[in-house]
């Protein structure tokens, strides 16, 4: 069994880096705070004798050798970056469950058959740079390295420059780790496990995600002198699309639709907005339904452009197809062995494991979180809940290594 | 008659300060560019022998003495600040028509019976600091000086500090100029004079304006894991209010409704917005209708707050009641004497003259502008159209001085 108190203490120590007054965490990818959290992870892994390497998109891999080091290692990992209004658990819990597994093996002098790999993936959140799961997606070959390094934040700062600046633009080739299976522990981020009073969620599926950049181009003009019928009001058109995003979600079973980001230009209260840029996020566990939602959004944007006599440009720059986790039964076996209550579940959020599933048998372990709240400073998972997840991770990894 | 080419040249020279690639102007109140434009105005006035003073809110007054200097002066003026996507004419045309009147009097050695006053008012636009017509409104006593100097822009910078920094925080008491009448020339900023093919608009009324700061306080949470029915989506609620602003305007004769400014927090695409702040601008020439529009907006915000189970705070921080210009007949007489086509009109925008009407007989002279477009870099008024307005200003002021 892992050490519950030690796991909790590492969570709290890591959470202090970018910790907020309300008990959350604001640690965007590629910032100085991201560097501090990475450095701490590296120091903890090195203290347990790991060899640490960084790849070309900044993913970190710490390896603990086993008995047969030519055999593929068993991997785990998650991310240390957070949302601007993030909590102390999203991603971090997965990384530190790994560290706790590592320490448990180390302290007990356990020699595993295969090596064990503990990883931190770059920019999983997709908040400062897009898309989400950028490090893992690039590692597995879904995204082009140069394209991703050239991605910029709202201030025009390149991801590649930020990684170099914080010392995490590595030399290691993408996809080059010798790994045979991958497991990620994560808080559920939703209300289901709590509602159902289950300690562990066996994640069977990661739902589909479609992300868009939408730009409405109207005509700036005076709010006091432009008659209503002569306006090309980019804000009004954008508001219709926001409302429709909600309607699309409600029309489809398990549909979700969100506009989280918006920039208005010139953003002056007596000038009718000439340009509004915003994000759209559509999700569904079923790819056919998600496609219909996508088509409805595109059609609606075209309709709005005509009705308002202005331009609506929509860039569907990211599609993440639903993924099935094919090593879920390993997670289930370990959970049952340990005697935790459990249920099958699907992941509403994207996770690094979703991309790792491209390369190796992959499973995910969910733990409950208070009121199902995440991407909020109030995000919380109790010491016991965290310990359960880390114990399942430990035993899932040990089993996989034995085989 | 004034000198058409000279007027045009000063407009173009002033327009270069903050001039944009698309031929417009971005010269926000209290910036270095505002300082440059003020300095140029002051140097032009001094070159014609004026004595220049600055009051406690940064308004500039240049006085050309007349024969009887104890008599109240005849004043004119407007503003040099622009919108972020402003043109070269809004405000500037009125100020430089004044300079052209001054130069015409000076070059022809005309001694007017009363003194003539040429003024520049601080932050008429209300874009960087609120409300609009801040300098004239404070001068006439509608606003409290300390409150206005303490107003901050979106970056928290105080108006008072900016005025001091650019050297235009003066010592002169508010409301202390000895003026007996005030006239302001301005581009119409709307499409009516152009449609009706009239050279001059005799402005009879300034319509009513109500400005609001609205803040929707929801709950930030994850876009991929928060079921639709558990959301408190501040963006969705804000979008409904934007849509309703349009509907309120369309329901009422001559109604206008605009949301020009919006800030989203945390502005991350996979976090449901926890907080959206935006502006609302309602206008109507009739105070009773404007009051109904106001009540409808308040009621709708309350309804939305209930429906979405979140908070909507609405601060109706500025009400400008419709104002009648009681020296319009002076403008009409001068226009007819000069033989320009004309029509009565009301002002959709607020103007410094609207507040000066509190203190002295006041009139406004409108000139056409291309396609009725303003608060847009494409704003344009031809040299002939500008000259007509400046000629009417000259003769209106001369007549008023004679009486
Ligand atoms: N785990 C997590 O919150 N990932 C962010 C990517 C997303 O699902 O939007
Ligand atoms: N003239 C002008 O555009 N004034 C700005 C104030 C307003 O009407 O919004």
From TrEMBL, chains A, B:
GO terms for molecular function: hydrolase activity. CDD domains: M20_bAS. Residues 208-308 form the Peptidase M20 dimerisation domain. Keywords: Hydrolase. Pfam families: M20_dimer, Peptidase_M20. Belongs to the peptidase M20 family. NCBIfam families: hydantase, PRK09290.1-3, PRK09290.1-5. This is Zn-dependent hydrolase. It comes from Marinomonas primoryensis. The lineage of its organism: Bacteria, Pseudomonadati, Pseudomonadota, Gammaproteobacteria, Oceanospirillales.
